[in-house]
């Protein structure tokens, strides 16, 4: 376990897992199939920022399954450690599917082109040559991400409504310290990956219209807020 994650886990309230619960966990894991979870076949790491505040930046470890060639679904953790906190989800779709979305829906999605070409998005533990084919598939995809646990502000539990997250689109946006810390723990170099992919991947000439809404909205962002609504019975 990384020192960072260990410190985070100490702040999570609740009693230590009892011996009885550990026995129950072993028993249920032997009896149940976990078919959806077993479809997870990929671990990639990147960074997100809150749709309304780029200064709030979070490392995000995605564990993804491929529904088909154009749709992926990912659960997101704050680290790759065994006791990492589940902090969100992301849906990833092809450019073709993104362009079919209603205009209002497109405001919730971000592009992955810069993440891939900059080396910011990578698969920990996978050699550069081996992951290049996968990155070629991701370079022209679009993601919709919701974080449910605001770990960056020190929340010890998942509080408040889910928060819409966005992805970086150019140099100078992501804090350098976050990259250096992540690279040291994952054993890869974002800078080296950027150079490597520059000659091996072909990014799209343009980003699909409607993605990365914050860039073209004139200083406005889309975000969830809680409000009371009329209740309807069954």
Mean pLDDT: 92
Distance between the termini: 47 Å
Radius of gyration from the CA trace? 19 Å
Whole-number count of domains: 1
SS strand fraction: 15-25%
List SSEs in N-to-C order.
HHHEEEEHHEHHEEHH
Which range best describes the helical content: under 10%, 10-25%, 25-40%, 40-55%, 55-70% or over 70%?
A: 25-40%
What low-confidence regions span 5 or more consecutive residues with pLDDT below 50?
A: 1-10
Judging from the principal axes of the Cα atoms, what is the shape?
globular
Major beta sheet summary? 6 strands, antiparallel, barrel
Number of strands: 7
Please work out how many helical segments DSSP would assign: 9
**From the helix content, strand content and strand pairing, which structural class follows?**
alpha+beta
Q: Which strand order does the major sheet show?
A: 1-2-3-4-6-7
Topology:
Blueprint: H1 3-10, H2 19-31, H3 35-38, E1 42-50, E2 53-68, E3 71-77, E4 86-94, H4 95-99, H5 103-106, E5 110-111, H6 113-117, H7 128-138, E6 141-147, E7 163-166, H8 176-186, H9 190-198
Antiparallel strand pairs: 1-2, 1-7, 2-3, 3-4, 4-6, 5-6, 6-7
Structure characterization notes:
The protein has 234 residues and is α+β, with helices and mostly antiparallel strands. It has one domain. Strands 1-2-3-4-6-7 form a six-stranded antiparallel β-barrel. The longest helix has 13 residues. It is globular and about 55 Å long. The N terminus is likely disordered.
Question: Descriptors for this entry?
Answer:
30% helix; single chain; alpha+beta; disordered N terminus; 234 residues
């Amino acid at each position: 376990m990384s020192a960072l994650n260990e410190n985070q886990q100490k702040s999570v309230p609740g009693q230590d897992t009892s011996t009885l619960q550990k026995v129950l966990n072993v028993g249920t894991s032997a009896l149940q199939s976990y078919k959806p979870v077993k479809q997870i076949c990929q671990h990639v790491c990147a960074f997100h920022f809150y749709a309304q505040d780029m200064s709030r930046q979070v490392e995000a470890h995605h564990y993804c399954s491929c529904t088909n060639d154009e749709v992926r679904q990912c659960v997101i953790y704050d680290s790759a450690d065994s006791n990492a906190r589940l902090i969100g989800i992301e849906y990833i779709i092809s450019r073709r599917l993104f362009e079919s979305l209603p205009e209002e829906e497109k405001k919730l999605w971000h592009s992955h082109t810069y993440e891939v070409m900059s080396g910011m998005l990578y698969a920990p533990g996978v050699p550069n040559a081996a992951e290049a084919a996968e990155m070629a598939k991701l370079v022209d995809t679009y993601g919709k991400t919701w974080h449910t646990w605001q770990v960056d502000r020190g929340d010890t539990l998942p509080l408040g409504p889910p928060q819409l997250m966005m992805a970086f689109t150019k140099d100078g946006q992501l804090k350098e310290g976050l990259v250096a810390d992540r690279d040291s723990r994952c054993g890869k170099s974002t800078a080296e990956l950027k150079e490597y992919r520059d000659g091996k991947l072909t990014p799209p000439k343009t980003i699909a219209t409607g993605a990365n809404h914050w860039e073209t909205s004139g200083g406005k962002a889309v975000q969830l807020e809680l409000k009371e609504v009329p209740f309807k019975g069954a």
